[in-house]
Hints:
Elements: H1 54-57, H2 73-84, H3 87-98, H4 142-146, H5 192-205, E1 208-210, H6 219-224, H7 226-237, E2 240-243, E3 247-251, H8 274-287, E4 293-295, H9 296-306, H10 314-326, E5 343-345, H11 348-353, H12 365-373, H13 377-387, E6 391-392, H14 398-407, H15 411-419, E7 422-426, E8 429-433, H16 449-465, E9 477-479, H17 481-495, H18 499-502, H19 505-518, E10 522-525, E11 533-536, H20 561-564
Antiparallel strand pairs: 1-3, 2-3, 4-5, 6-8, 7-8, 9-11, 10-11
Amino acid sequence: MDQQDYAVGATRVAAGRPDGRTGxxxxxxxxxxxxxxxxxxxxxAPGKAAGGGADDAQAxxxxxxxxxxxxxxxxxxxxxxxxxxxxxxxxxxCTASFGLYPARHLGAAAEPAADPGVSWWHxxxxxxxxxxxxxxxxxxxxxxxxxxxxxxxxxxRSGAKPGGPGRHRRPEGARVAPLPxxxxxxxxxxxxxxxxxxxxxxxxxxxxxxxxxxxxxxxxLIRRHRDWLAERFDALLGYRLVVGPWHARLCKAGLGPxxxxxxxxxxxxxxxxxxxxxxxxxxxxxxVDSPEKLGYRRLLDAMRAAAPELTAEPADLAMALAAxxxxxxxxxxxxxxxxxxxxxxxxxxxxxxxxxxxxALADDAADLIRRAAxxxxxxxxxxxxxxxxxxxxxxxxxxxxxxxxxxxxxDPAAVAEFLGLEAELRAEGVALxxxxxxxxxxxxxxxxxxxxxxxxxxxxxxxxxxxLPGEAVAGDVPIPDALIDGVLxxxxxEYGLPARxxxxxxxxxxxxxxxxxxxxxxxxxxxxxxxxxxxxRPPAARYAPAPDLHPTPGSGRHSRPxxxxxxPAGPRP
Length: 573
């Protein structure tokens, strides 16, 4: 892995595709997409005008009739679907229609298991004793302060430009790895295998890469090996790779419902709301055919005229425009949203590159989410291996489960070899690990207070509820709400919390469970009238100490031992 240290953590998405073709998921995916109108020329240098026709020559203050912006009907339809969706469905719809999500993998490889059929609950673990000092020993700063020692600080490569925050992680000591220097091979050539792997990992983390964006230093590798990369992505994952002079686009498929992927504000990390997604799709519907210079107020007026029923708060509109600027579809945004004289710079080609699946054959949002993830069993399972933290057989349809069982020793290894990952086989399924913690947008262990608290939480939950060898366990293990609250209370007592969590303990619970859910270590069971119940997933056990066959009840003052140790089965004496 010494030639794979390029930081490709998904923290920023650089957009663009010069030939204007729409995404689609590639081979093995149902045709649920349509082309946005009017593809532009393929050979265009960065920063050059997106179009050269009469429309582009119009000044921003030309008469309204000459600058009428007509929305793309497919994207306008998508905007209405976003507005009517619940938050989780809106996230899945974004994944299906834009395909801009990054790969997400667990790190910290465990010791190899002698038996690949051993359960995650009882197999080797990747647990490392947390070097967190006790409350009495720490200074100010709580958990974050306790891991500031350089020797104990885990290296988390965010993939962001030096000096800039990652899209999903705040800059709390995160270290950014530079692009590795590939030394020439004296026998002729430049170590093509290492370059190909670097390029493949970059594309899987950032499906849209530009020659002038934050990952421009990796773009030459993509162009150099585009034919080999295109063949391998198509053969293994059914993804289509389009590489032009200035942009590269990996056309990813959707991940289906409940994918736990979401778009976030590029600066604050705030998750998109359904209204924010709707404003994003609505703006794109107008920008795909807009002039290069467009008045800021004119864009807002055109959005209101195209869909007056799609009202949004200023924060939702600001979130959408910030994402478009982050993808380089828009240039600089006005410092004052009330500045009616500000003129936006629009890159139409990048606007046309963003949509991967505008609705065509789909009947509604749920149908588009389903269609975008459709593929033959081999392709569908390989996509999950390449994109998600772990693939559990219990989560798969019967035909996909049968394929995984038949090919579990060969195909995961092929995907791992392609992407520079390590396969971890267990009785419940397969996880492809990235010990370098680069090919992921979320890292555990992490350097933030939340990541450290979540790690401590999952460690202690596993120790409390892990099934004993021989117990019949159908995958996930339910966790009493009182146990979650008790463990978090113990963590707060022992290590302290930052001010924002001291003032709102429910926020700590919400954020820690959300992080573990997105990493596929816990999963909620929704309930119509009360908060969801939570279940611990088998891969969570890899972060706990090695199993103890005779555990003792929790000793913290918030623990509820009576809830943790069920009475023995069988008739009463």
